[in-house]
Amino acid sequence: MVKMSLDAIQVMSGQVKELKVSPSSNGDTRGSWEGKEEFDPNQLELTAKPKPPKPENAVTVAVSSRVLFRTEREQKVFEQKGVEEYLRYQIEHENEPFAPGPAFPFVKALDAVNTRLRELYPQSEELFDIVLVTYNHAHVGIRLINTINHHNLFIERFCMTGGSSPIGYLKAWHTNLYLSADAEKVREALAEGIAAATMFMPEKLTEVSESQLRVAFDGDAVLFSDESERIFKTHGLDKFFEHEKENEDRLLDHGPLKGFLEALGKLQKKFYAKGQRLDCPIRTYLVTARSAASSGIRALKTLRAWGLEIDEALFLAGAPKGPMLEKIRPHIYFDDQMFHVEGAAEMGTVAAHVPYGIAQKYNSQQKMSSGK
Amino acid sequence: MVSTVTNSDVKQKDVDQAVVVAVTFAAVFGPEAEDGSTVYRLGVALPLLQVLQRVNERLLEKNPAEHQLFDVILITTDSWQQQQNSSIINSTRHHGLEISRFCFSTEDNYIESLVQNNVQLFFTTDGNEALQATHQGVPSALLDKNSVSCPSEQLRVLFCEKAIIQPNMGSTEASKKSAQNFLAHLGQMRQKFGVFDSPLCFTLVTSHGGKDSCCCALKSLRSLGVSVDEAYCLGGAPRGPILSLLRPHFLLSDGFSLLEG
């Protein structure tokens, strides 16, 4: 394994990419459901409480109740005693707020960015919009609303589907990112083209910034497709290096979280435009097992061609990611391999698993560190 | 002069305990119904009629002696329709609709019929009819072409703000009381089934208010005995896409509070 010095490398940006705006994917919209105007223009004036933005203008992040809050006790009731008892328990404890879950610091940080954006652009709807999406029955609704109020979270949209799949609603709300505790639902979302990841509660939580949102991404099978990972898994490390060298100038295909990074980038540029590059409350990181001098080049060239800026790119050349993440302290780290997710969690980083690509076949078996 | 005719094909319900709903001629039979034929084609109310029947079946499965069932009346609302009485009865029997009675009334006295028959919810395709009935204390619901694509296995009721249905559909004290009565019945029917596999599903959609408005509605409905299954707080987001996913059979906005305005 070649040891490389772990220097942070700034990536120069190219053209500004437009924020992804997916057209409504619900087929025919029935005119009569629309009724009168959707928006009363008078209601768009700023009142004491800010108005939530229109979904197509905002960066919509959907979180499930199980990752936003800690609901282990209630989960146990559900598993051991069934759904009726579970709902009865929830109603009985309606006035007890839930404790914060793994996605909580991330959501708080999104809120902090929104506050800064509103200061600079009071009329803009290009903000983060957080939606609570849960399979729970509306019986749990009052407890969830009480909890949101207790923690002072700015969440004005939610979706309690009472058991049916929320995928249709995710699409209707132009969701840019979906976080859930359930891998099955995350897979369903990914299959529909929605960036999604499974979150876990780490045993200890390192403190993260309350004023700067930090998001870290793995490269292959997260930002990029898993094409190179396939080569590595089937033919080994040497073949991987050879393949990457030969294809250095050919762009990698995009992965499931490229769109989210793009959305973050667009918001970052709004701060740069007002001279706040150094003080930007959003910071992005690439944390990859690729090596800076060899296989990493293709990753950088791809990002540049996509016009995506990433603030820090860390090429670990196969070294464990845990210690580096512990230094960065991201609010969330996306990786396609459970091995890395667990490693990060051990050191207190909130890591989310993106169940995409070839690594899913190897997740259970792979326990050795992989060098690239 | 109003005449009421029993449909001998259908077992009559216990008038004291049944939940009486009325559906207009124009909703049961399609607009082509006025071409002089004696057997009318079915209109936008078909899925609703089917699903009300389904709920009754499931209730009787649970308890064969159940009396709290939906009791459906067909009502005519103008003189021309009133004169088609035999064709109406024929067509109803032909299609095997579970309609227990017919009220042959005109535009002048149909509301009186509704009141006299203890109708708890009046289904119509005509906005004016709905307005007038509500003013007289009979809760109303509008049916339209969207009603056609609703499921027939599960009755989906949507609770929402008044503004969504008809901005000027004011409610009176009388209609509010009747609405609450109806909601209580719905709640009781729902209680007879478990969380999953229920033939009734209640959904709350708050379009403009925030989470506190939604919370208020949930509590208000709960105090009437209605446990909502699904809740969507839109916070100003367009409701079209969500409504087309939910496919409710009808919308209700009276009888519970929502912190509107």
Which terms would index this structure?
heterodimer, A: alpha/beta, Rossmann fold, 2 domains, ten-stranded mixed β-sheet, 16 helices, 14% strand, disordered N terminus, disordered C terminus, B: 261 residues, alpha/beta, 10 helices, 5'-nucleotidase activity (chain A)
Question: Percent range for helical residues of chain A?
Answer: 25-40%
Q: Count interface residues per chain for the largest interface.
A: A-B, 43 and 39 residues
Radius of gyration of chain B: 18 Å
Give average pLDDT of chain B, whole number: 89
Quickly count the domains of chain A: 2
Order the strands across the largest sheet of chain A as they lie in space: 5-4-1-6-7-12-11-8-9-10
Strand-residue proportion of chain B: 15-25%
CATH class call of the largest domain in chain B: Alpha Beta
Largest sheet properties of chain B: 6 strands, mixed
Sheet with the most strands: spatial strand order of chain B:
1-4-3-2-5-6
Low-confidence stretches of chain A: 1-47, 366-372
Alpha-carbon Rg of chain A, integer: 21 Å
Biggest sheet details of chain A:
10 strands, mixed
Number of strands of chain A: 12
H-E string of chain A: HEHEHHEHEHEHEHEEHHHHEHEHEHEH
- N/C terminus separation of chain A: 8 Å
GO molecular function (chain B): 5'-nucleotidase activity; magnesium ion binding; nucleotide binding
Protein name (chain B): Cytosolic 5'-nucleotidase 1A-like
Organism (chain B): Xiphophorus maculatus
Organism (chain A): Xiphophorus maculatus (Southern platyfish)
